[in-house]
Q: What sequence folds into this?
């Protein structure tokens, strides 16, 4: 018995030593952040800003890999199955909390298969339309879509995407079902909105602010309870015809389950440094958002936030009766 205990302790000590050595060497090669949506979308924009700043802190290149499909679940599933060594990460938005309710055959556990690293930002959303859409303000838009519900098209980035959730809440709020046009990412959806192939959508400020300021699309309202500083002329949806409406998009960074704690801590440190970077702060401000406070850019804060959001969205999705295979 004593010999077996001694052997166990030696093996345990060796494992701890290897883990500590790995953590001390981390990272010694490029890190990849998987964005589970197409390039050019709002989550992709957030990821590229954060990746560049994290690269400086980690002293290694941080690459972005876009793995779109199925509302972000394809990319999330890939990271869930990746080695837990810190070199493959997931940057996902609110969809990480809605996927468990939306997908009957989810291939991963949104909580159990990941090690949270930290929250990144809370992003407001905007109701926008093609440049020549007839409605001049939010009240006119609501009236127009109700009158022309069989003709109006609403674009979204796919089931489970932020734009899908926002649209679902909007249609429920105005008690009008519209023809929805799903895309494989917000980037392609925005391209068709710019081209006039679809009528309107709800999208994050990180993807719409420059288009709004450039006069390329028509903007009606923001989805937060307070106005957005970068878009001061836009009213809130709550004050412009849909009382009580509020939805925003949060982003978080994750590693696969089993990633050593020292590696997670190192990544958290790099994320926090990135969120304090002056360029990141300015670019976020230009896009209508801002980094979270450092006490929220932690594994504990993201873990708690994810669980709260899962509990929040589950009854809403169940009531709406929307599911994906």
A:
């Amino acid at each position: 018995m004593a010999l077996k205990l001694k052997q166990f302790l030696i093996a345990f000590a060796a494992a701890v030593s290897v883990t500590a050595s790995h953590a001390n060497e981390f990272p010694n090669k490029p890190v990849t952040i998987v964005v589970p949506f197409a390039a050019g979308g709002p989550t992709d924009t957030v990821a590229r800003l954060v990746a560049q700043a994290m690269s400086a802190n980690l002293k290694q290149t941080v690459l972005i890999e876009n793995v779109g499909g199925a509302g972000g679940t394809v990319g999330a599933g890939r990271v869930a199955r990746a080695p837990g060594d810190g070199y493959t990460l997931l940057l996902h938005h609110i969809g990480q909390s809605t996927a468990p309710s939306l997908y009957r055959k989810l291939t991963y556990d949104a909580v159990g298969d990941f090690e949270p690293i930290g929250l990144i930002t809370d992003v407001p959303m905007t109701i926008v339309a093609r440049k020549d859409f007839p409605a001049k303000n939010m009240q006119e838009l609501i009236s127009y879509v109700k009158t022309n519900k069989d003709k109006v098209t609403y674009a979204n980035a796919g089931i489970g995407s932020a734009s899908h959730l926002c649209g679902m809440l909007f249609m429920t709020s105005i008690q009008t079902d519209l023809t929805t046009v799903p895309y494989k990412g917000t980037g392609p959806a925005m391209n068709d909105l710019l081209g006039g192939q679809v009528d309107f959508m709800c999208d994050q400020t990180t993807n719409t602010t420059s288009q709004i300021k450039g006069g390329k699309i028509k903007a009606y309202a923001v989805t937060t309870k307070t106005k957005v500083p970068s878009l001061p002329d836009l009213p809130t949806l709550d004050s412009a015809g849909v009382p009580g409406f509020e939805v925003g998009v949060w982003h978080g960074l994750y590693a696969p389950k089993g990633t050593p704690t020292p590696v997670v801590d190192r990544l958290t440190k790099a994320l926090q440094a990135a969120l304090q970077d002056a360029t990141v702060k300015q670019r976020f401000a230009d896009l209508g958002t801002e980094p979270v406070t450092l006490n929220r850019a932690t594994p504990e804060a993201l873990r708690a936030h994810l669980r709260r959001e899962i509990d929040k969205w589950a009854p809403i999705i169940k009531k709406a009766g929307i599911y994906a295979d």
